[in-house]
Records
---
Amino acid sequence: MISEIINNIFDILIIILLLITIFYAAKLSRMASTFKRIEKDKENMEAVVEQLSNIIDKANLAIANMKETANSDGTNLQKNIDTAIKLSDELEIIVSSGNSLIKRLQQTKKYISNVNQQNISKETLLSAIKENKGLYR
C-alpha cells in the first residue's frame, strides 16, 4: 500500500511538473510570437524610416533649389530696380532740359514779338541774337 501511495504521489508530482512545463511552454510560445511580431515591426519601421529619410532628402534638395531660385530672382529684380532708377534719373534730366528749352523758346518768342512790334530791322535782331543781348529778359 505504501508503494501505491508513493506511486500516486510521484504521479501527482509528475502531473504538476508537466502542468508547470506546459504553462512555461505556452508562455515561451507567446514570447516567441511577440518577438517575431516585434522583429516584423522593426523591419516595417526600418522601411518607414528609410522612406522618411528619402523624403527629407528630397525636401532639403527642393528647399536648396528654392533658395537658389529666390537668390537668382532677387538679383535679377535688383538689377531691374537699378536700371529703372537710372532711367528715372535720365528722364528727370530730359524733362528738366525740355522745360528749360521751352522757357528759352517762350522768351525768344516774346523777344521776337517785341521786335516785330518795335519794327526793328532783321540785321539788328540778328546781331542782338549773336551777342545774346537782351534775348532772355
Note: Residues 2-97 form one domain.
---
Amino acid sequence: MNSGIVIVDDHAPFRAALRQHLAEHDDFEILAEFSDGHDFLEAPVSEHWHILLLDISMPKIDGITVLGRLGDRHSRLRAIIVSGRLEEVYRRAAFSGGAAGFVTKDLVFSDLVPCIRKVLAGGRWFPGEVW
C-alpha cells in the first residue's frame, strides 16, 4: 500500500518539483495539493492521507497555525514542515506545534525521502537541536 501524501505550499513550481521527486518512489503517492493552509483546512479529509508536507510562510493561514488546527479531524496525519525558513525559532515552533519532522528547502532533495520514511515508521526528524 502506498503512503498518501498531501502537499501544502504556495509556490506551484516547488509543489511540481516535490511531485516529480516523490514520483521516483513507488511507495509514495501524492493525493492532494493546496496552495495555502486555509484551503487545506477547509477540504474534505481522506483516510488515505498519511503525510502532510507543509510550508511555513503562506498567505491566509501559515503552516505553524495549520499545525495548531489539525486536531481530531486530521489526527492520523503526520506533518512534516518543508520550509526555506532556516531560523531556529521556526524549528522550535514546528516541534512544539506537533510536527513530526522539519526539512529545509535547500536540502529537500537529499533529506525529504529519508525524513518521510522515518516519520512513517513512527520517528521524528529535526535538524540540529530544537530545545
Note: The mean pLDDT is 91.
